[in-house]
Amino acid sequence: MSRTKEHKPLLEFKNISCVVKERPEPILHDISGTVYESEIAALMGPSGAGKTTLLHILARQEVFGTVTGTTTRHCEGFEIGFVSQQDIFEPFLTTKETMQLYAELMLPSYTTTEERTQKVANLLSELGLAEVADMYVGGNDFSGGAKTLSGGEKRRLSVGVTIVNDPQLIFLDEPTTGLDAGTAMEVMSILRVLTTKGCGIICSIHQPRYDIFREFDQCFFMADGVLVAAGHRVDLLNFYKEIFPHQPMREEDVADLFLDYLSTLNATSAAQVADKWFAFPTAHTRVKTPRDRSKRSFFAARADERPGFIRRTGLLIRFNGP
């Protein structure tokens, strides 16, 4: 993706730390960064690096521990979506019924039945779910004997119900975990399409294949709660070459080699590498022009524009009734 176009920040975070009484060392150490519109940012690192904790803090999800630091959102709360690692749905609803339920719950009350129906149809088509629209979602509690959605289809449905109201900023926790290579790439392709509409995306991910890694516009490499390096993969490649000047290096290898290296670091050694990164002359500088928050999608609803309590309760009874 071209880096010449100016993309406006959607989320800025500064000096994020997290401590728990049970651990002598913080879970997160003084982490700062920016997520931009029309880009995919990835939080990467070995297990225990703190990437999921950071993602949940930035998404304002509940976390265990005391959090300090600041986050500044250049979009409204109703313009933000979160996709958890677990795909949790009512198993006896079909794909289409699930999308319809979320459309009824999340779209503004001023949208018509025809507009909601068309929105659902468009999303099912864009997500490649039109052919399984009448298939039960299924799950652990499903015992109907009918064919149900695959893991990849459920993950696409999770994305679908999140984007039904056209969010500007989306958080995803391990979006490719448990998926085969082809299905994982399908999910990433959907996310890339969302960026063409101006959406900013940030996800946590463990050890992606190169074809997925190259979809990331910005990578935050973490180790033991420390942000070791952050930037475009070309910058990170050049940085790794500086650390290990005599080691042959290709762009295809940088993610695996960097992650293997990070797994050997503790908080102290990670901070030492981070100092080298912050002194490294990166190739890409960013101009931060605030986004115009007055602009929003027709389908983005403030809390007071969504269906009221009685309407929502009726919808849940109707969709989950006998």
Automatic annotation (TrEMBL):
The record's annotation in PROSITE patterns points to: ABC_TRANSPORTER_1, ABC_TRANSPORTER_2
**Which SMART domains does its entry note?**
AAA (SM00382)
Fetch the SUPFAM superfamilies from UniProt. P-loop containing nucleoside triphosphate hydrolases
How does it sit in the bilayer?
A: Multi-pass membrane protein
- Coarse class of the primary localization is membrane
Organism superkingdom:
Eukaryota
In what residue span(s) does the ABC transporter domain sit?
11-249
Q: Which GO terms describe its molecular function?
A: ATP binding; ATP hydrolysis activity; ATPase-coupled transmembrane transporter activity
Q: Where in the cell is it found?
A: Membrane
What GO CC terms are in its UniProt record?
Answer: membrane
Q: List the keywords (alphabetical).
A: ATP-binding, Membrane, Nucleotide-binding, Transmembrane, Transmembrane helix, Transport
Task: Quote the protein name from its UniProt record.
Answer: ABC transporter domain-containing protein
Which organism does this record belong to?
Cymbomonas tetramitiformis
